[in-house]
Design brief:
mainly alpha; single chain; 245 residues; 11 helices
């Protein structure tokens, strides 16, 4: 984890766009720009208030995915950073947990900034909104752990474009971020509800707007935790298979 933090100290300027500008641009363009054309409430609230917590969860998904794809492959194949770490008393599990801990810290930074910008836009309506930060972290890790497991097993990066094209981008559009999934065709609604981003969006939206029901919150949390744990177990196996010769 100290390695990833040290590396970030030298490259943090490149993350200004995703950390600061994206929230402002998305909320300004989609919430205020497009939102000015949406005359009726969406999900019982103004359009800007509806999409803001969804964008927080979607950003966590993107950060978790980005940080567990190319950085993992680079650490194994191109830069071989993981092997340098394993030349010390560190074990494979140390390497994996350290990288995931860094991803969690990165998610903490981004979700905290996003929530602050949401507050500046006036979209935070409950004191429970602060809990959207750990929910965002969990949402990001629910993607990061299985994607890291996948990345560690790959010989090249061709599979990453497939994840973006058929995974992250469709989830961003059709998991309840921009409109209620009840507006989807009937056969697509169960598919959307089975996606991890839907659960992250629902949790963040309920916390930020103060409309979260305890039973639903427990189900959403259980889903995200289960996916994170399963991904972690799979990552342990692929990391050992790839790093231990």
């Amino acid at each position: 984890m100290r390695y990833w933090m040290h590396q970030y100290k030298r490259t943090w300027r490149g993350s200004i766009t995703t950390s600061f500008l994206y929230p402002v641009l998305y909320l300004g363009a989609m919430g205020l720009g497009l939102g000015s054309l949406v005359k009726h409430p969406v999900g019982g609230v103004p359009f800007l208030d509806f999409i803001a917590p969804g964008l927080l969860a979607s950003t966590a998904m993107q950060i978790g995915g980005n940080e567990s794809m190319y950085p993992v492959m680079a650490a194994i194949k191109w830069l071989r950073t993981y092997f340098a770490m394993l030349a010390t008393p560190l074990t494979v599990i140390d390497v994996l947990v350290g990288h995931l801990a860094w991803i969690a810290l990165r998610l903490l930074m981004v979700t905290s900034i996003y929530l602050a910008i949401m507050a500046a836009f006036g979209t935070v309506h409950s004191g429970l909104a602060v809990l959207a930060i750990p929910v965002g972290i969990l949402t990001g890790l629910a993607f990061a752990t299985p994607i890291a497991a996948f990345a560690a097993a790959q010989q090249n990066d061709t599979g990453f474009s497939t994840i973006y094209r058929f995974g992250l981008i469709p989830l961003f559009l059709f998991s309840g971020t921009f409109f209620p999934i009840g507006l989807l065709p009937g056969w697509m609604q169960p598919v959307a509800q089975a996606t991890p981003l839907y659960h992250g969006v629902a949790l963040c939206r309920g916390l930020v707007l103060g409309h979260l029901r305890p039973a639903a919150a427990g189900a959403h949390l259980a889903y995200l935790l289960l996916l994170t744990v399963v991904g972690f177990v799979l990552a342990q196996r692929t990391y050992r298979r790839r790093l231990v010769t």
